[in-house]
Specification:
heterotetramer; A: 285 residues; alpha/beta; Glutaconate Coenzyme A-transferase; 2 domains; ten-stranded mixed β-sheet; 10 helices; globular; B: 256 residues; eight-stranded mixed β-sheet; two-stranded antiparallel sheet; NagB/RpiA_transferase-like (chains B, D); 3-oxoadipate:succinyl-CoA transferase (chains B, D); transferase (chains B, D); CoA-transferase activity (chains B, D); CoA_trans_fam_I (chains B, D)
């Protein structure tokens, strides 16, 4: 059964130095507050896993939390580069970052295989491209019926998955809705999981018979962090802060502006600062 | 009204789309082109974004691949593994849109690195959905602005496969899809030559010269025997496109 | 785009002699009216595919439509045997029936692989059991990372899939809800598909963002057949006719009672008879 | 009130279940046992039916694995491929219930054929979910009425794997789950012997003799050193179970 915890307790419980962590959310519901808490707790040597590293991993990489990144698209969506990611890969700042790079199809299949407790996934991919020559984890398997050779990817089985969701009920069941991404798979693929939520309700009430729900017994811990996805969004709660995504380009471009932003907005703050994002934009959502 | 080069690129792409197409849409010019088509001559076109939104009909352009607007106006939204497995790999997409930092003469694309992979001069975002969009969609339309750093002689890294080193390479890999069939730029439209698969200029946008196009390309460009002029943007195309951008700016408070 | 057709036109369009057909529905939404129409049209040499053959396939087998059955559980749920299925396998009546037998896990994976356009599926199964020794289609693949040997099943790629669903809208999109089984996968795995529906509506109206919907362009044909799942059920429309499942045991036990039931209830009737099942039990649902 | 042998079987099974269990439930005795547990000492037990219903709380017993009642009272309902992949194969089920037409002394089960597979004397329904329930659930509880045609010396066909030919066979196959740990019959409870994995009678239901149990089994049965008497059904257990059956009969109009 999922345990209700504070965000700080939750990160302490699921993230430890040297472990692998998948913080997922496909544009929607990115667990930014949890990323900040991970930075505050000074976690080190993490293997960060995420299809689209986005600002959340730019921050974790720039503050030195990451040893390795497993990913498929590392940019600031609609804006440009992730400067801290680039600085780590191109210049080794703040230290060298090992990368394991896949395509979206591979990552999505790898999460799916992890959730299904399979050691690998086979898919039709990587035909004629260079990535397999630089990533030894891209291999192949031969169909025992047709003889066709398919690409493979190892299942993603992170030590910890962290996601942000809309609601939890009092029993600790978690409701996702809208663009659900790979979050359910990430939680099911992981050894332990933390879910931050916008709201805790007595009961989900009337709902679609096939609603996307993670049952309490499939989740480790739940923390109530309203606004916790900002500058990403929570469908029906608040909108994506596109202006912050644009502003980030300037903040993250230089090391000193980045570090001072981190100090002012992460190290010197707590998870409660996220609540204002939920409140200020709720009506506009 | 006269179209800007970027508008012309978008409009040229939109014209290729029809009501029966199922498009895998990326952000930027592809999204604008697909929605322009939907708001003009192809109202029933099916648009899919890789975030899982099926048959979506946004009233403003999304800024990200996963904007709430896409979900709100979609027929339904599926999980990302399902999107890549049942819909893209399932072979249910007729047209995939791609762009990239760099393209070569056989429409292979690089969005991964400039310089050596292990010590890159510029680390680009990477492939994302592109490698499998390139192989699993019925055909690929590419939209890219020209320039000699973008249209290069040799790619440092092949992120997604176009026509390899020429005609027949796709078939040799077991690919049954067509690959890139149209490249819409800000200056012209290119197509792979039917015999060699080398990109060939088939039409020049109004007022653009062959010299201008060649100046935007690092390899010696081939021109088709009968290069035409891309029909100028119509009043309707331009006004619908500009309205769409205006609505988008108003909704997002930023440029789209 | 899905075409709206009569049931007779739909069966003619998607089922031809000698083709493979998957009529799916996991207890819920079994396309019984479509099965009857297939019998009326006298289709022959069909390869019937279905996880739980159930009464619908007992009828198709007993009337001689089937040459081969691919299945994972062939019984009358909660009642006992499928007598026509047994008579075909045990005594070759009305003619010999070839069988290809799998487990539920294998069939579910095989549909999933079919929908995903993969040639096979790998799963953790069949350890220590006898089925692989009598079904040469059960093979294995070795994980290219862990070396683990996994069972495989060929993807199901039927010529036709036939399902019953709750609603279609005027554009031909199809809504499923409740126990959705493997129906979506069956349709996506098939070359062509027929969906019978309880209701055609102008618009699905407000719904869950992640509702289970087959888009019009993924479906071949739609026929409006209210009550078409009877004696199975349609969630929110009418209940499962448990009494008929019990009665079937007696009807199907002997060849002559079976044939006379088929004459009276299938051959001499049309799809319109199903409507009364929807009406008579709607209030109880 | 005195329990019938079938009621005793169900009650003995229900007693083994706790609030923290996640059960993969089959129709019949397993369903009755799981819901009896839920309505008595284990209100928070999680019940899953292979039709995709997660955490379901039916007020009457389902007649089929996919009754609407299961969906109506479920936390949510997933597609069948997801059920078998993420939930069963995912290793998220602590207890799977199985029964069968035949069982052998190492708790292997047959629900496929009597006689040769290609020319069966009796064609049974087949495995359904059983082969992978047997291997992927944390442990397996079996409920079966005794009789010499059911408890047989040698199975004509192994549909689902119990302990093979004895202790160590599961581990040799790479299975990390416990397999059958309890067999509840209408006469007694059996467990695999810790040393040999051979089924051993550990308790006799009230009023049942060793001779009666042996008469229901085709192989010479082993009895544990300290065979106990199964505690008699309590008033509460019996009344809750009978109420459940009465509600079920009323709801379905047929026996459950």
């Amino acid at each position: 059964m999922a345990e209700f915890v504070s965000l700080a307790q939750g990160i302490e419980a699921v993230v430890s130095d040297g472990c692998s962590v998948a913080m997922e959310g496909f544009t929607h519901l990115i667990p930014h507050a949890a990323g900040h808490e991970t930075i505050r707790q000074g976690k080190r040597r993490l293997t960060l896993i995420r299809m689209t590293p986005d600002l959340i991993y730019d921050q974790l990489i720039g503050t030195g939390c990451a040893e390795k990144l497993i990913f498929s698209w590392g940019g600031n969506p609609g804006v440009g580069s992730l400067h801290r990611f680039r600085d780590a890969v191109e210049n080794g700042w703040p230290h060298k970052l090992e990368i394991e790079e896949h395509s979206h199809a591979a990552m999505a299949n790898a999460y799916e295989a992890g959730a299904a407790n399979l050691p690998f996934a086979a898919f039709r991919g990587y035909k004629g491209v260079d990535l397999p020559s630089v990533n030894p984890q891209i291999r192949s398997v031969t169909c025992p019926y047709s003889g066709e050779v398919l690409a493979t990817v190892p299942a993603i089985r992170p030590d910890a998955a962290i996601i942000h969701a809309l609601k939890a009920d009092r029993e600790g069941n978690v409701l996702l809705e809208g663009i659900v991404g790979v979050q359910k798979e990430a939680v099911l693929a992981a050894k332990r999981s933390l879910v931050t939520v916008e709201e805790i309700v007595d009961d989900f009430g009337p709902r679609n018979a096939n609603a996307v729900i993670l049952p309490s017994w499939a989740v480790t811990a739940i923390a109530h962090v309203p606004g916790g996805a900002y500058p990403s969004y929570a469908h029906g709660y608040y909108k994506r802060a596109n202006d912050f995504y644009i502003a980030w380009d300037k903040i993250a471009r230089e090391r000193d502006t980045f570090l001072s932003w981190i100090k002012d907005n992460v190290l010197d703050k707590g998870p409660d600062v996220f609540a204002r994002h939920a409140l200020s934009t709720r009506e506009a959502a | 009204m006269t179209a800007t080069p970027t508008e012309m690129m978008t409009i040229a792409a939109a014209r290729l789309l029809s009501d029966t197409d199922v498009c895998f849409v990326g952000i930027g010019a592809p999204s604008a082109a697909c929605n322009l088509a939907r708001l003009t001559h192809a109202p029933k076109i099916t648009l899919i974004y890789e975030s899982g939104t099926l048959s979506t009909r946004p009233t403003v352009l999304p800024l990200s691949i996963g904007d709430g607007e896409l979900c709100d106006t979609a027929l339904t939204t599926v999980a990302v593994p399902e999107m890549f497995r049942y819909w893209l790999q399932g072979g249910r997409i007729t047209i995939g849109f791609l762009g990239g930092a760099q393209i070569d003469r056989f429409a292979n694309l690089n969005t991964t690195v400039v310089g050596p992979y292990d010590a890159p001069k510029v680390r680009l975002p990477g492939g994302g959905g592109a490698p499998e969009i390139a192989s699993n969609c019925g055909q690929i339309f590419i939209t890219m602005a020209m320039g000699t750093r973008a249209f290069v002689e040799k790619l440092p890294f092949i992120t997604s496969f176009g026509h390899g080193t020429g005609k027949g390479d796709r078939a040799a890999l077991g690919l049954t899809t067509k690959g890139p069939t149209k490249i819409m730029t800000d200056l012209c439209v290119l197509e792979p030559d039917p015999q060699t698969a080398e990109l060939t200029v088939v039409s020049l946008h109004p007022g653009v010269t062959r010299e201008q196009v060649q100046a935007g390309c690092a390899w010696p460009l081939r021109f088709a025997a009968d290069v035409t002029e891309t029909p100028a943007a119509t009043e309707q195309e331009l006004s619908v496109l500009r309205d769409l951008h205006a609505r988008t700016r108003q909704a997002h408070g930023v440029a789209a």
